[in-house]
Amino acid sequence: MNPARQRQPQKGSLELIEEAIHLLRAAPMSAWADYYLGSLPFVLGLLYFWADMSRSPFADQHLAGATLGLASLYLWMKFWQTLAVRRLRAALAGSPAPPVTVKLCGEIFIAQAALQPTGLFLVPLALAATLPFAWVYAFYQNVTVLAEGQAGELRLLIKKSMRQAALWPKQSHFLLSIVFLFGLFVFLNWATFCLLLPQVAKLLFGVESVFTRGGLSMVNSTFFAAVFGLTYLCVDPIVKAIYTLRCFYGESVQSGEDLKAELRGFATAARRAMSCLMIFGALLGPRLETAEAVELPEGQAATPPTGRVNDIRAYAGPTEARGAKRPRAADLQPSAGSGANSQPNAVSISAPELDRAIQDVMQQRKYAWRMPREKIIEPKDARDGIINRFLKRVANLLSEWLKAAGSWLDAWLRRLFFRNRQVQPGGSGYGWILAQELLLGVLVLAVLAGLGFLFYRVWRDRRPGAAAVASEPIQPAPDLADETVGADQLPEDGWTRLARELLARGELRLALRAFYLASLAHLAGQNLIRLAKFKSNHDYERELGRRAHAFPDLLTVFGENVSVFDRTWYGRHEVSRDTITRFAANVERIKGTT
Amino acid sequence: MLGVLAAWFFFYLIGEALLALPTSFHEGTLWQSRWFE
Predict the structure, then answer these.
(1) By percentage, how much of chain A surpasses pLDDT 70?
(2) Closest among A549, A564, A494 to A525, alpha carbons compared
(3) Which of A203, A348, A468, B21 is most solvent-facing, going by the fewest CB within 10 Å?
(4) What is the pLDDT of residue A302?
(5) Taking a contact as any Cβ pair under 8 Å apart, which residues of chain A between 9 and 68 contact chain B?
(6) How near does any CA of chain B get to the CA of A113, in Å?
(7) How would DSSP label each residue in A177-230?
(8) Residue A294: exposure state from Cβ atoms within 10 A (0-12, 13-18, ≥19)
(9) Rg of the Cα trace of chain B?
(10) Quick one: pLDDT band at residue A439, thresholds 50, 70, 90?
């Protein structure tokens, strides 16, 4: 950071906070809607998660899924907060809010998903270390403020955020101190309000509730989490506005944007009815869900045994429940809960099935509060490390999802293919139905095969093109009777193969020459001789004598073969199989020697 | 992807910590008994 820039005139901390409040008051409703559309679900999800983990005896079983949902809500919140801050920046600059496109949303979400989760670890660590906290906290706030949603901007975003976080450290520390103190008082206010509200309601309206009867029993960890969530929803918009102003004035040192904004004046921000609806929807939706959730236990509490038995019956009798829609099944197995006069069919439910049904029903959330928490939580993998446990749970969760997807697919296919199996006994037969199903199956298979082939073609075309193979003409086998044929016309293996073929055909003289040429090709390959048409066999022998000092036996063996070859090829000596065998053995010795 | 995994792991740690705390802490009886009795 340039020290000259740090000496730029900076606004006072209180002045900046005052300006932030003013910015929030003048902010368009759409900015508020964006902010709470992201933050409210996360805070509500966090409270639900907290209450579930602190109370439910079965929380350990769905920990991985619940935390994945909470992580998704966190990223959702960061994404919407970025959009809200963009509107604040636009209002601050006096310009209309930039249009929000799908591509822009994708880029913002990717940038926030890549950077913000690291803050979950680094901000607490910086807080523990105390000194770097202001810079680290400012960095992650700036990541929210400065995200522009441009492709490949991640490095630029990090660079800009770091630069702005390092700006005016004194102001940053004062701001954090004031905001922390302010947040503390907001927390106390909310805590007092929530504690006194039931008492005030009882005093003024005579409303008796579990909170008034329980006294201080409502002061538990979930209560503090709820108060903390309310405090966050109140204070965090101010924090966002403060860091928006810091980034705005920090960038204006070079761009002069603050001067341009003053010249433009403040444009009247249009309030959109859609934003209001979104806020009401965000506020009303959870209330409705809560109302439904509250009504259910009350209904159950009125007749708890009946409700539970009905649940068990409904769960234990899926066959009956499904069978109620099918006359045949209903005739054979009447529903257990169909009426007061119906006889309970003890034979239709086996004991293990009934036990399993009872256990499943008892694990429903509405009965979980009856269970002692510590006795249920007996993790089998308690001895594993925290990372190992996390990875195991992630693997289990993915496995469960795959099984659920497989079950769904199986049920769908069964519904698709076996839906029309039931036919009337007096019908004309169902051969045409089978044929139809068979044709449908073949069609599905053909489509799947076509898709598979299409994907294979796409995949194959995406691979880098194979290197071009130079075509070489296949050389015909040389005519060994021709005197002009040289050892360089075939490789060593080719001559050996040709010799064996000629030997098999009884062409002993030609086979002998092929073996001889194989030995010449081998020696040339070892750089012990240089092949040339003008050279005689004795020339090769002399050349070998000069170059193969390291192989004294080689010269003797080669000389023996030259003698045999000259006698049989140029002389009139007969070639017998013994001669060939010895000659070929000498060739192998030559190969083995070198 | 790594960011999502990091956030997931962080909240998993929070969940493990909440599960590890005794019920008396969550219910408030752990600290109430010392302060108010």
Answers:
(1) 73
(2) A494
(3) A468
(4) 41
(5) 49-50, 53-55, 59-60, 63-64, 66-68
(6) 5
(7) HHHHHHHHHHHHHHHHHHHHHHHHHHHHH----HHHHHGGGG-SHHHHHHHHHH
(8) exposed
(9) 15
(10) confident
| Eight-state DSSP code of residue A476 | P
Q: Are A89 and A242 in contact (CB under 8 A)?
A: no
What tens digit of pLDDT does each residue of A581-593 get? 889 898 888 888 8
Contacts of A221 in chain B (CB under 8 A): 21, 25-26, 28
Residue with tokens 């101010």: A238
Look up tokens 């991985």; give the residue: A64
What is the average pLDDT across A116-144?
A: 89
Instruction: From chain A, pick out residues whose CB is under 8 angstroms from the CB of B22.
Output: 374
Question: Is there a contact between A49 and A254 (Cβ–Cβ < 8 Å)?
Answer: no
Query: What is d(CA A157, CA A176) in angstroms, rounded to the nearest whole number?
Result: 23
Q: Quote the pLDDT of residue A148.
A: 76
Instruction: List the structure tokens of A72.
Output: 């998704």
Query: Amino acid letter at A498?
Result: L
Instruction: Name the band, by pLDDT with cuts 50, 70 and 90, for residue A305.
Output: very low
| pLDDT at position A226 | 92
Nearest to A486, CA basis, from A530, A542, A541, A543: A530
Q: Is B19 exposed, middle or buried (0-12, 13-18, 19+ CB in 10 A)?
A: middle
Cβ-count burial of A149 within 10 angstroms (0-12 exposed, 13-18 middle, 19+ buried)? buried
CA-angle at A471, arms to A467 and A475, nearest 5°:
150
pLDDT reported for residue A276: 59
Q: How far apart are CA A318 and CA A406, in angstroms?
A: 20
* DSSP 8-state symbol, A371: S
pLDDT for residue A150: 63
Q: How far is the C-alpha of A157 from the C-alpha of A163, rounded, in Å? A: 10
pTM, two decimal places: 0.53
Residue A292 vs residues A10, A44, A296, A463: alpha-carbon distances, Å: 52, 16, 6, 55
Contacts of A267 (CB under 8 A, 6+ apart): A94, A95, A96
